[in-house]
Design a protein that fits this description.
Elements (H helix, E strand, L loop, with lengths): L2 H30 L5 E8 L11 H7 L3 E7 L4 E7 L13 H18 L3 E7 L3 E8 L2 H13 L10 H10 L5 E6 L8 H10 L1 E8 L1 H4 L6 E5 L6 E5 L3 H24 L3 E6 L4 H13 L2
Parallel strand pairs: 3-4, 3-6, 6-7, 7-10
Antiparallel strand pairs: 1-2, 4-5, 8-9
Helix pairs in contact: 1-3, 1-4, 1-9, 3-4, 5-6
Length: 291
């Protein structure tokens, strides 16, 4: 991508996603991803209904009147974006290509994170760790992440979701909130890695898919190219059997994925490239916030 075109896209995504994070996601993000604990803030006079366990007996003795300790939530989190950069992210038949939607979702989460004083880092993965951007704060850091989301060129076209999960389990000692952003077109072998990672970190799955991944219309004989294997083949979409086989393949894959995420207790939402991802993200955040 040329530098001028890239800067325009970065600016466009910055304006859109920063606005979303400020005007829509700020409250939901804060509620959904609470801090890890409470830290002492101050003391104040006891009020009816306060927990007597919070009474500061030293201050109470000095003033001959009950005082309680006030605590604040530890807000600072480490947020990681695990972003799938395999070949299939370049597919887009209905709406935007997956890469564009993934970049917007990741940028929205990133801007929401820095507004809450959280650190944000990124892991780009295919069937290997393509790049690791350590967690930092600040707008400059976010803009660097967006540029990489749009223009990063991986070494491999293949996918292995277990790779970034093993990486954060081993590399990140402190508990983090990690968003796994992928189309999840992979074998189900990541089950064990996800289970282990989810016991250490707060994992959230975000699937971005194209409707043509799930269903192909009757448009006759077409030539299709697999962006991961780099192989092409002819497909007769006029055949009901072919369309049914492809639909069954997608349905079974989705069922397997959903079951793995459920067993690992991972919150999850699925977004099509021609749908409004904002509604899906807000619903996910609100669901977490009321638990």
């Amino acid at each position: 991508m040329e530098a001028t075109e890239l800067l325009k896209k970065v600016r466009k995504i910055e304006i859109k996603t920063r606005g979303l994070s400020q005007n829509i996601f700020a409250g939901e993000y804060h509620t959904a991803f609470k801090g890890r604990g409470m830290t002492f803030s101050e003391v104040r006079e006891y009020q009816y209904g306060d927990d007597i366990r919070d009474i500061d007996w030293n201050v109470t003795a000095r003033h001959n009147h009950p005082y309680v300790k006030v605590y604040e939530e530890e807000r600072e989190l480490t947020v990681m974006l695990m972003v799938d950069v395999s070949g299939s992210r370049l597919f887009g038949a209905v709406g935007e290509i997956k890469r564009e939607i993934m970049a917007e979702i990741a940028a929205t989460i990133a801007f929401s994170a820095i507004q809450n004083n959280d650190k944000i880092g990124v892991i780009f993965f295919s069937d290997r760790i393509e790049k690791f951007i350590p967690p930092q704060k600040g707008k400059k850091h976010i803009l660097f992440i967006i540029r990489e989301l749009l223009d990063f060129k991986p070494e491999s076209c293949f996918t292995d979701i277990s790779v970034p999960l093993k990486f954060i389990t081993d590399a990140l000692k402190k508990r983090s909130t990690a968003f796994l952003i992928s189309d999840f077109i992979d074998s189900p072998d990541y089950h064990t890695a996800l289970s282990v990672a989810a016991n250490k970190h707060d994992i959230i799955g975000l699937q971005v898919y194209d409707k043509r991944d799930a269903q192909i219309p009757n448009i006759g004989l077409i030539r299709v190219f697999d962006l991961e294997t780099q192989k092409e083949r002819w497909l007769d979409t006029s055949s009901k059997k072919v369309r049914k086989t492809l639909g069954k393949w997608w349905y079974e894959r989705q069922q397997t994925m959903t079951e793995i995420l459920r067993k690992c207790r991972v919150d999850f939402c699925s977004v099509s490239t021609d749908e409004d991802y904002v509604k899906s993200l807000i619903a996910l955040f609100q669901k977490r916030g009321i638990r």
